[in-house]
Prior knowledge:
Layout: H1 24-30, H2 32-46, H3 53-62, E1 65-70, H4 76-86, E2 95-100, H5 103-117, E3 125-129, E4 132-134, E5 141-145, H6 146-155, E6 162-167, H7 175-196, H8 219-228, E7 235-240, H9 245-251, E8 256-260, E9 267-271, H10 279-293, E10 298-302, H11 306-322, E11 330-335, H12 341-345, E12 356-361, E13 374-379, E14 382-389, E15 394-401, H13 404-411, E16 420-424, H14 428-433, H15 448-456, H16 473-485, H17 499-505, H18 510-521, H19 525-535, H20 548-556, H21 564-582, H22 588-601, H23 606-625, H24 637-647, E17 652-655, E18 661-663, E19 669-672, E20 685-693, E21 697-704, H25 707-713, H26 715-721
Parallel strand pairs: 1-7, 1-8, 2-5, 2-6, 3-5, 6-7, 9-16, 10-12, 10-13, 11-12, 13-16, 19-21
Antiparallel strand pairs: 3-4, 14-15, 17-18, 17-20, 18-19, 20-21
The structure holds adenosine-5'-triphosphate.
Amino acid sequence: MAQGVEGGATRPPPFNGSASHTNVANNAKTNPSFNRWQKIAQQRKSLPIASVERRLVQEVRNNDTLIIVGETGSGKTTQIPQFLFNAGFCRDGKIVGVTQPRRVAAVTVAKRVAEESGVELGQRVGYSIRFDDMTSSSTRIKYMTDGLLLREALLDPYLSRYSVLIVDEAHERTVHTDVLLGLLKDVQNKRSASAYGCPNTENKQLNDGVLLDKGQGVWSGAMKQCQSRRFSTLKLIIMSASLDARVFSDYFGGARAVHVQGRQFPVDILYTLHPQPDYLDATLITIFQIHLEEGPGDVLVFLTGQEEIESVERLIQERLRQLPESNRNMWTVSIFSSQPSEKQMRVFAPTPPGFRKVILATNIAETSVTIPGIKYVVDPGFVKARSYDAAKGMESLIVIPTSKAQALQRSGRAGREGPGKCFRLYPESEFEKLEDSTKPEIKRCNLSNVVLQLMALGVDDVIGFDFIEKPPRAAVVKSLEQLFLLGALTEDCKLSDPLGHQMARFPLDPIYSKALIQASQFNCLEEMLITVAMLSVESIFYAPREKLEEARTAMKCFSSAEGDHITLINVFRAADEFSEKRKSGQSKEKDDKVLKKWCKENFINSRSLRHARDIHRQIQGHVEQMGLHIASCKDDIVQFRRCLAASFFLNAALKQPEGSYRALASGQVVQIHPSSVLFRTKPECIIFNELVQTNHKYIRNITRIDYLWLAELAPQYYSMQR
Ligand SMILES: Nc1ncnc2c1ncn2[C@@H]1O[C@H](COP(=O)(O)OP(=O)(O)OP(=O)(O)O)[C@@H](O)[C@H]1O
């Protein structure tokens, strides 16, 4: 059994009843959970990383910062935290934290590691993601999103509970990862320097503040003090299968990089002979080719977004109906970020016997996750990415080719349980032309949120912050300007009190945080909570091509002549009313089914609606905690529209003579999206929440306002404009 309190080896799950050493052998023959644990233990032993456990632990002991690069599936994410736990890095209640860019990875990996360790999830091994905390005081290995750790730093600037922090999938370079790297570098320096004054740091100040020189001979005492608290310095590990170790090493002052050799199973990469003009059609053909010609095994398909996924899902069903009965044994499931977590978890459910599971995913399933059963990956080579025009202050989503690093990660999802195949739907010559790595998100997104968080963390000089790669200066300046206009910053560029601090506490985009705070003053927080929740999910309405007219008629029942925000509120409330009336009092599943039927009849996307209800519940919790006044403006719609104008004044637009609109802040000419309820009426002055760039610049989620309200409700901006 284990040696030491928290440094013990992992053990099998408890047997039914009281397990003693004498009955282990008997139980082993019959107990399925024991058999599963044995299989897992075997699998763990065969991972490439297992043979270098001791060396890796030694490397972590010897280096404060370590970069680990290893093949996808070699065991970095699941095994290294367990190695560190076993080596005693969690003594004295300390935690090994692992950050992931995505929620689904944090949850599924934590579940797997809990199972491998034979412990209940939330006890020794847990996860924490926005709005969902599965940890306890006994958690020692904690998986979390990078954004969550940033928020933790607001409360505990030294991140003092952690002995080791592992930044996983660092190649993704999400904006949170980049900010986190800068923050962790700073925390690491502060912890090494101020708390213990170890001689291996440049700082020579001891706890009691006495400055020492190397010649004074006191270092041996200081050294002892350091050794006795060796885990008080923060160990940092940067990990990925596909990162440029040099960039990270340089950033961390020449940090050591180690490569873990070897992969578990081979993955055959297949390319098309020619470029595919219609990648969705090529995707469908490939899925059916695999289904009809390849051996057993599930398929993972990478698409760019919810709409694309839903249309491919429909096309698959149509084609399946044309196949003979014996070939219809395909089961499609989907996973994308705006789905509720339980829905996302469905992709991990076992495939029914005799069926082939086809998972339609966005890049959410690209890194860290292992979906059991996947043998084939279909990669059309595209991803939806954020793009930001700082001059216009406009963010949009555009579909672009993946990078080589992303292609590698995608193929790495096959070959985790046996040999696999990856079908890249482009020629090999195209692969060579791809960028090596993904352009860091910090260079292509609106930075208001990041700037607000950094300022809340006490970083006043955001432009001078030690980023691994500096964001464009114009983007930082634009964000400072926006935050100032929203009232989060004072004139001398400090976080305002209380507004700026309150805004930083919301896990939302600053413009939405401000809207909620503002709404409590306009007595319409009830309406704004619904609005923010509904705007946080992908399209609520869906209109299948073949039933367009029916869908339009259904939408009219909820439409408000004032605009989309009130229309969305109408949908939310109608769903609530329906649920309330039809509550069976029997089971949640039954109620969900009834609501789903109602959604279908009304051409409402039930997934999006459920997700919005979930988000609504969670932000309402935040609002209550902050003590904001929740009230409804009831029938006083003008009041609510005024509040929208006061909140989203940066996104106001005026009608042009020919029927297009000019966005007042950016000067861009934009069109109302055909899905908006105001598409035909085209009022004089509007506010909007989203700009979508296709062949036109479309705006969505629009409400009619009075032009004069702008100067009245946002004088800080509109009086400057005149
Ligand atoms: N949920 C799971 N179910 C089944 N097997 C799993 C699961 N999670 C991990 N594994 C197994 O453990 C192996 C190692 O997974 P791990 O995530 O630690 O690798 P990794 O090196 O971090 O990969 P990546 O770089 O792709 O994140 C997988 O290849 C797979 O065989």
